[in-house]
Design goal:
five-stranded mixed beta sheet
């Protein structure tokens, strides 16, 4: 051993003391680590002891003390380790996957920029040192639960932000900015004062209740869904959504608490995957470039997981959320499927009304107040919710949701399908006020009905497709064959024929022409047939299979045609025709 090495080493107990300091600096109650046999540790690093015939030789392993400070296990059973080392008297900690900690070169590559006191030439020695240290201190190294996302956890706890109550290590780097936005700021009283200005604006409150309802979905058994807030600009859509998001995160432009429609399916899935019982706000539908993308999102959200992918791409990413979308254009205008309407709650009236200066002043106060006070109300709501569940209150919550579902079914089939989602918002509104979170009561039943019971044209995709057919027939009238039409067909061929049903004129169309016309308007003929039949728009005969595709003469040949009920093309008497 050289004189220099002798100066650096001290008594055996010094190594244990140093390990204790690195593990929890300044905490006298911290558990002492034992130094593995064959190693020495001091302020200059870790040394491996090699016995020779001339005595001990110390071989440097690290250039500063390095230990396993804690072990974390995530819900899937995968482990990560927290490493700690000193840097000029400062303790540095980093969490890495177990697989990286066991491979020295990968460890140096992962933590080299963080100042890991190891060079690649000593990487094998570091692997052995960490393994030996962990082995001998197996009972001393603390073990913790590691959350991979926010919201409900496998152990029944609810994570609202980092270390509240668990440490969170996200699976994707893209999730880190949104995770950082989920942190408290300001005061609860300041947040309530800002939200109080929403009391007179029921439509704006819907964004608040949507974000408050997210933790309830798992309890009441409702799948993820979308709340769409659309309409003219400068009416407070984004402000209302930001107010809702302020329950949990920083909604201002300086953070990533709010998401954008300028994204891809995989990127959106990663953002959704961050939460299991928290909302996600996606702002400005005008940024959408491909309508098919929105169509896919609306159908994927209620599945509670992302698309299946191969080739190493993230597959089946899970979530449980209420997605709040804002924009001048409703998300339902991007799809022609009627089923999409059952997955979306639409708020079309101006969130902050149309009272001019008064509406604008209220929106500004809410916006500014929520930009300073956020992430404080949501955790309080969850605290009350957990207390309720611990006291056996789940049955009460579920029963109330069922009662609200019946109350919000209204009169149409589409309203009945949406009722569980509306009930989730209404339940959040009731609990939020009862628990002292929201400083005003839930709107009256008539207000809920006014917002969500109004039938919208977009609710009936069959009727929208029928409008396409009417327009097509009107613009191609010369291409319809009639009993007294000359035999020479038009250049593009006949599209169908004029026909009489019950002594009333109507139109019959060739299947391929009808299918192609609807396809160009982004409608699928097979998906609207059932709606047309239910509404009686097609003439049917039991002697044909299928009964709505009838055999009729067209220019001397018998062909199968879709024959429409005369009422489909009848004109109003007031037209004067």
């Amino acid at each position: 051993m050289t004189d220099d090495q002798t100066d650096e080493q001290s008594a055996d107990g010094f190594g244990e003391s140093l390990l204790r300091i690195v593990h929890n600096e300044g905490d006298e109650a911290a558990v002492k680590y034992r130094c593995p046999t064959g190693y020495r540790v001091n302020h200059s690093g870790v040394w491996a002891v090699k016995e020779t015939k001339d005595g001990e030789i110390l071989i440097r392993v690290t250039y500063a003390p390095l230990i396993v400070r804690a072990i974390f296990t995530d819900p899937d059973g995968d482990q990560t380790v927290e490493l700690a080392w000193t840097d000029r008297g400062r303790v540095v900690t980093r969490i890495v996957a177990r697989s990286i900690a066991k491979r020295g070169r990968h460890l140096v590559a992962a933590l080299g920029d963080a100042g890991l006191p190891v060079i690649e030439a000593d990487s094998k020695q570091v692997e052995r040192w960490l393994a030996a240290l962990e082995s001998i201190n197996r009972n001393a190294i603390p073990r913790f639960y590691l959350a991979r996302r926010l919201g409900w956890q496998e152990d029944g706890t609810f994570v609202t932000s980092q270390e509240t109550p668990h440490r969170v290590e996200v699976k994707f780097d893209e999730q880190k900015p949104a995770l950082a936005a989920h942190a408290p700021a300001g005061t609860f009283e300041g947040w309530q004062a800002a939200i109080k200005r929403m009391e007179s604006y029921a439509s704006a409150q819907m964004a608040l209740y949507a974000c408050l309802a997210a933790p309830l979905l798992q309890i009441v058994g409702v799948d993820s869904f979308t709340v769409d807030i659309s309409g003219r600009s400068t009416r407070g859509k984004t402000t209302a959504a930001a107010a809702g998001m302020s329950l949990w995160a920083d909604p201002s432009e300086r953070s990533d608490g709010m998401y954008s429609w300028r994204t891809t399916m995989l990127a959106l899935e990663k953002r959704l995957n961050l939460v299991n019982g928290l909302p996600v706000v996606v702002d400005e539908t005008k940024l959408v470039k491909d309508p098919e993308f929105v169509h896919g999102v609306l159908y994927q959200i209620p599945k509670n997981h992302g698309q299946a992918r191969g080739g190493g791409w993230p597959s089946g990413l899970a979530w449980r959320t209420v997605m709040v979308s804002t924009g001048e254009q409703s998300v339902l205008t991007f799809t022609t499927d009627q089923g999409a309407g059952a997955r979306v709650l639409s708020v079309k009236s101006a969130p902050f009304g149309t009272d001019g200066p008064e509406s604008a002043a209220a929106a500004v106060e809410v916006r500014d107040g929520c930009a300073e006070n956020f992430g404080v109300a949501g955790p309080r709501f969850v605290e009350k919710l957990l207390d309720q569940l611990a006291g056996g209150g789940k049955k009460t919550i579920v029963a109330r949701h069922k009662a609200l579902t019946e109350a919000h079914k209204y009169s149409s089939d589409m309203s009945a399908r949406r009722a569980p989602m509306v009930a989730a918002l209404a339940l959040a509104a009731e609990l939020g006020h009862m628990w002292g979170i929201v400083p005003f009561p839930s709107p009256d039943a008539a207000v809920w009905a006014q917002i969500f019971a109004v039938s919208d044209q977009t609710d009936n995709r069959g009727e929208m497709a029928l409008d396409v057919v009417r327009e097509y027939v009107a613009s191609h009238r010369r291409e319809l064959w009639g009993p007294y039409t000359e035999n020479d067909p038009p250049f593009g061929g006949w599209i169908g024929r004029e026909i009489t049903v019950d002594e009333r004129p109507t139109i019959a169309l060739l299947p391929e022409r009808l299918k192609e016309t609807l396809r160009k308007a982004n409608y699928d003929l097979d998906s609207v047939i059932s709606s047309w039949r239910e509404s009686g728009h097609l003439v049917e005969s039991a002697s044909y299979r299928p009964p709505y595709l009838l055999g009729r003469n067209l220019n001397g040949s018998k062909v199968r045609l879709y024959v429409f009920n005369p009422a489909v093309f009848a004109t109003d008497s007031e037209d004067g025709e």
